[in-house]
Amino acid sequence: MAQLAGPDEIESFRIELAEIERNIRTSFRSQVPSFHSVSNGSSEHIRDADDEDMLQWATVERLPTFERITTALFEEQDCTAANGDAKGKTIVNVSKLGAQERHVFIEKLIKHIENDNLRLLRRLKQRIDKVGVKFPTVEVRYRNLCVEAECELVHGKPLPTLWNTAKSLLSGFASLSCSKRRTKAGILKDAGGILKPGRMTLLLGPPGCGKTTLLLALSGKLSHALEVSGEISYNGHSLEEFVPQKSSVYISQHDLHIPEMTVRETIDFSARCQGIGSRADIMMEVIRREKQAGILPDPDVDAYMKAISVEGLKSTLQTDYILKILGLDICSDIMVGDAMRRGISGGQKKRLTTGEMIVGPVKALFMDEISNGLDSSTTFQIMSCMQHLAHITDATVLISLLQPAPETFDLFDDIILMAEGKIVYHGPRSTISKFFEDCGFRCPERKGIADFLQEVISRKDQGQYWHRTEQLHSYIPVDQFVKKFKESQFGEKLDKELSRPFDKSKSHKNALTFSKYSLTKWELFKACSMREFLMMKRNSFIYVLKSIQLVIVASICMTVLLRTRMGVDEIHANYYMGALFYALVILVVDGVPELQMTTSRLAVFYKQRELYFYPAWAYAIPAAILKVPLSLMEAFVWTALTYYVIGYSPELERFLRQFLILFLLHLASLSMFRFVASIFQTAVASMTAGSIAIMGCLLFGGFVIPKPSMPAWLQWGFWISPITYGEIGLTTNEFLAPRWEKIVSGNTTIGQQTLESRGLNFHGYFYWISVGALMGLALLFNIGFTLALTFLKPPGNSRAIISYERYYQLQGRKDDVDGFDEDKKLHSANESSPGPKKGRMVLPFEPLVMTFKDVQYYVDTPLEMRKRGVLQKKLQLLSDITGAFRPGILTALMGVSGAGKTTLMDVLSGRKTGGTTEGEIRIGGYPKVQDTFARISGYCEQADIHSPQITIEESVVFSAWLRLPSVIDPKTKFDFVNEVLETIELDGIKDSLVGIPGISGLSTEQRKRLTIAVELVSNPSIIFMDEPTSGLDARAAAIVMRAAKNIVETGRTVICTIHQPSIDIFEAFDELILMKTGGRLIYSGQLGQRSSALIEYFEKIPGVPKIKDNYNPATWMLEVTSQSAEAELGVDFGQIYEGSTLYKENRKLVEQLSSKTPGSKDLHFPTQFSQNGWEQLKACLWKQNLSYWRSPPYNLLRISFISSGALLFGVLFWQQGKNINNQQDLFSMLGAMYTAIMFFGINNCSTVLPYVSADRTVLYRERFAGTYSAWAYSLAQLLVEVPYLFAQSVIYVIVTYPMIGYSLSAYKIFWSLYGMFCTLLCFNYLGMLLISVTPNAQVAIILCSIAFTTMNFFAGFIVPKKRIPMWWIWLYYICPTSWALEGMFTSQYGDLDKEISVFGETKTASAFIEDYFGYRQDFLGVVGLVLIIIPIVIASLFTYFIGKLNFQRR
Length: 1450
Description:
- By secondary structure, the chain is α/β, with parallel strands linked by helices.
- Among the domains are: 7-130, no CATH class; 543-791, no CATH class; 887-914 and 929-1136, P-loop containing nucleotide triphosphate hydrolases (Rossmann fold); 1173-1444, no CATH class.
- Helix content is 53%, strand content 12%.
- A hairpin with a 2-residue loop joins strand 13 and strand 14.
- Helix 37 runs antiparallel to helix 47.
- It holds the Pfam family ABC_tran.
- This is ABC transporter domain-containing protein.
- Belongs to the ABC transporter superfamily. ABCG family. PDR (TC 3.A.1.205) subfamily.
């Protein structure tokens, strides 16, 4: 730290300070506590310290204003002291605090989160109030707010099949949209209310009632596709008058983050982009007034306020503060991770989503279901912090929660209760119970009011709360509640307030933000550049892999075309031309991975763009500039390796010129693919568009078809292709060199003749025109990329589709439907009876005991943690876990977020793919065997992973088909499926598509219930449920827990991790295993009646506070055992448990249950899977077929691609197939076939990558569950492609064959069809194979590039078979493209006996083909056989690797 004043300066101020000292000594002593509380030392010591501190304050006071705002007294730590004592205060620049200093400062300020955070905010408020400065506040009003969505009506099931989508597109093109029926569905209906500063409001309601829509509308983030009417204002200003996204904060329920960034980096970046708001202005005003009043501030508060008021810092103290209060400091240096990358837990991710937004200057907060996946203790802690924020800083806070515990509910000031898009109640929390009592409903004792409120408006649950026994209960619909509220005292008061306009003069000048961005353009650019550079470092593996690929390909190319085998003559000039063309192809294709890398980050970009973190240009420009060194490196690697080995013109100038062209081409290629990705947005669509772009560039590049041979009306394509300018630049640079100036015929040199034959006879100055054109194209693509990011909307829900049947049903029951889901989908669950069904089906199973003893689990310490000084090579996540799960007992597995609950379940169920597990796990007394265990267990994962393109019913049917024993007949299985759907209350929406989380399909709670149904239908003996109630409202959670209780009653073993149980849900459990941070047990045993056993155990521990009456035992238990409570009591609950009699009893029980009972036998099944291979294949093929039929973005796109591509080929090569007069005509036809094979193949391979990659996560879940064998899945995946590939081949032949003018012989038509079909099979199966051997689609794309370039080079077009050296000929023989090209070309022209002109002599076409290319007509039989063998080999490798390799990191 830089000290700003020395002893000499201090001495010079002593005289001036004498007067100040007398006036402020008393005030200072009372207001300046140091970091460490001052011990009972001598008063003389205190006086000395005070004197020194006052001298330092005087130094600060004399500084210029711009320095004073960043200068504070900071306690210097004595690093040499064992206890880390303070050495005293020093003057520091708070903008230059180091990471360790920030950490120590926050640790000193906040030890006990709840108390110390409140104390800090109060001290901050007291300082501001003392000088009469006010915080800016925001009052949000909304009146007559209505939101509607447009829906399209269809007959039958509203599913997006290929047929439906094609019809929709065709009708659109034909302007027949009038034939479509459209209707509007209301989401919000006449909503009105006032959100006041300094108050925290809870938004309650069942899923689908419009909560998210209301939050989005109030925060100004509602989609423009929705129709909005009514008024929304902030401090009397309508949303159009200011920037609502910067004046308020919306926190989504979806956790969208860049997986490669750490938690700290994510929050730091957000803090930097959101800026400091009015903090600096407030700070300046406070400092000015304090100076006038002669007030000395608390140095800690002063340092904190100044540190968070500095703009544009890479790392801020506010980040450390947010990490601390959200409990994220323990994982601050761990990467966020995703489905395929190990990262932070689900609860931590949810807290990160909150932290990312509240780190900024918060005045109005709209938080959407932020507690999903958090335990009740953590939720309470976060809500307490939000309450402090609202009450002390006068923030306006509206929070939507699904299952708030009673103590969390009590933190709120106001309640908004919604149902069916209407506001049922908006008023004080304290009076809501009375409102419903006046309506005839009363909340029972030990029932959470939040749960009561959500159930009292439900048709099925309302009756149980009716308390007017003298009257018969009849269902009171939502509209009656709304009417009753409007007539109530609060409803009338609200109407009066809304009718009075807000007095704008009372609005603080800094309350609303009128500028979109918080930082200057330069600061925005710097912030985005630093993040882009960080991303490049984290993805360095991909760039290294690309460079290795380039070295390999360059090595092959230069050893095929060695200078010792090349001459300076007419024939070899063609080979030099081919080598130059190949270099261009390689460097263009090298940019393809940019597609995947860009699309993978678009979701986060759109989120941050809409929050006005930064403009699109600040994201786009660094993405372009930071790739320049990569382009330089790639171009240099290629040029340096190949230039002199192949034997181009030896002048250094020409070497540098070639390098420059290749560099600019690579830059243009990267820019082009980024632009394509920004336009098409999704991985599959971008891949298809990228393939079209490459095909267009190469076809019009002047090599495959010379420019003079192109139709005149298409020659404009030649001038817009980047490859054209690369070709002109490289060929003029090489063939206008002195060594090619030998005269051959007439007055023409070899170089000129070669250029003329290719239509590239340009002057030397065209080299510099090409340089300029490539720079211009790169610039143009980057401008396009920036504009696309600026103006295009993010990919999301298209217009909702609803069936006529459902529409008429809704019209008829508009006021009756309970839980009408308009917010997420236009579907609603037909609710079944809450109680268990009479005579429910119980399929036969074997009750089993699971015991585990001394289980330990370790993982490698993350690199980021090691960088920060953690020395251990292994992190222990589970420590000495011992226990038992018994049949007929419902066990809860609980602990704070990050305690290791999911880790323990993964270890016990055998789902961990990494780390080291120690200890003993037994099933029924026998050691656990994973393959057998998978048959008798079910696992409901926290992440709801399902195939997106099949319906709820189909998902459950698929699970039942393959996981129930084969002895059960199909009818029983189907009945069981229906029963499960009814039990989990999914029968009303069973025809809905699952969809992609956060984008389409089911809502979070529907997805969660589907996860449970899929496992429940397998009839397991042991069921693990990882947070089955996370993301559900109280009613849905009750349904799920009733289902779990019903399962237990049948004698099964059920284990649930659970975060926020209500009293009812918590006491439905029989036993509890409680864990603490670090993966240690602190309780394992029975709950007892009303949790009596649990309460008795903890209340016996000295210092643990007694539980209050009617308090939730689950919440109390988590509160009294939290880390801060442990620190306060000075105890270790893990050690207390290990020394207890309960621990000894549990050990004894585990020993007893671990022994084999007489007459028992180990689990054994005659087969590994429930169904035989044929049934597995049938089921997998059935599911894949449905998925493919409902995937228009994948299948319709590739069919469209081959149709348009074939049409382009037909136009470019119009009737050239029948006019064969010289060798160039044959070269053109070979070029047509070569290009078709390469590009249709590459497109198919590229588009299958993201599709199979996404499906692989579902495969991992289903394979872990023992659903089917890997070969059944892979064979189904391979077979389902066949009809689509055959259709593509037929389209190619039908379109190109007559247009190009090939022979109409049936034999030749068959060969053309067969060759294309086998080619597409090879490429599709190759894409699947590469996904099976790589961890993600990005790496697979790079390997694809290697494969494509090899197949391109050895196809027989760039270098004929006869010219390939013997040491590389084996590559020719293993490339499917060479066999396909040979088969298609030889079958078409191998028997052509017409005499043609060849290099100045006359030969038959068939003889020339055999002499030049090495293609023989009598070899076609072998070619045909090899063409079908290659895809079979690739398919077999895919089957093997998809079964053997697992890249999921758990």
